[in-house]
């Protein structure tokens, strides 16, 4: 039986952190054995708010790819490709832009939230929001449909983007015929990973993230600053582990001992410093193999480049096929019959 196609993407704006690994990476590792998997390094989308710093995006394409390989993404099972190197995505984005209004884009809950965040960050009325930023759901629809994506792994906050894609597909098919596949979301079973400060979102800009490339000293400093139960004043005071970020991370990397951590915390039988030091050790142990693989790929950038080149070539073949069908349906394949006749 032919495998269904999965399409997902990640923006190359920095290294992977624990939120990426547990929120999406673990799901990807499970899915790579079950589906025809396309994983997009979305450098064009990264440029929507990093257009003034292209060197950052360029560097992170390779850093991010080596991170993905280090956590176990297998290039023999997953087509890892670079978005900007598939011109058919840009073509589809232009065609789709005629099928969605600006008003609809502004109503997209995900876009509204991110625009509000930019306004809060820059303290203006939205003048910093570009056309590319508002229109990225259209580009994302092109990403998915170019590769005939049937399933898209997402968190609940990304569902409005998938619905926007489905709307575009339905509109296109209603005008030009049943050409495009309407994708379905594949909801991650793992909830969003909280930051060290207890924030519901982990991120570099929030300063609350643990990155997979962090060394021992960096992890030690970060964990020692993690938020614990504010009611625990003295070492032997009982505490509530459920509001402690140290316990939260024990559940991720120290599952074999997490019940003991919980019980001792509740009884006041362990101090916060002891608990943090144990977590630091477990985190470094957890990251050991990932760090070794990361070091290997940093020492062998030619392998990373070859993997990206092969993945992009494979992905491009599918996108070219999709674009051929799209142009024929839109009656803009002016020279295709002539080319076929020449052959």
Descriptors for this entry?
343 residues; mainly alpha; three-stranded parallel β-sheet; two-stranded parallel sheet; 15 helices
Question: Could you walk me through the main structural features you see in this protein, from its secondary elements to its overall organization?
Answer:
- The chain has 343 residues and is mainly alpha-helical.
- The protein has helices at residues 18-31, 43-46, 54-71, 87-96, 102-107, 109-122, 131-134, 136-146, 159-176, 216-224, 245-253, 258-267, 272-299, 301-329, 336-342; strands at residues 5-10, 36-41, 78-82, 151-154, 184-187.
- α1 (18-31) links the parallel β1 (5-10) and β2.
- α3 (54-71) packs across α13, α8 crosses α9 (159-176) and α11 packs across α13 (272-299).
- The longest helix has 29 residues, at 301-329.
- The chain is elongated and about 80 Å long.
- The protein starts with a strand and ends with a helix.
- The model has no long low-confidence stretch (mean pLDDT 91).
Number of helices: 15
The rough form would be described as: elongated
Helical content class:
55-70%
| Helix and strand composition category | mainly alpha
Q: Any idea what the radius of gyration is? A: 23 Å
What is the topological layout?
Blueprint: E1 5-10, H1 18-31, E2 36-41, H2 43-46, H3 54-71, E3 78-82, H4 87-96, H5 102-107, H6 109-122, H7 131-134, H8 136-146, E4 151-154, H9 159-176, E5 184-187, H10 216-224, H11 245-253, H12 258-267, H13 272-299, H14 301-329, H15 336-342
Parallel strand pairs: 1-2, 2-3, 4-5
Helix pairs in contact: 3-13, 4-8, 4-14, 8-9, 10-13, 11-13
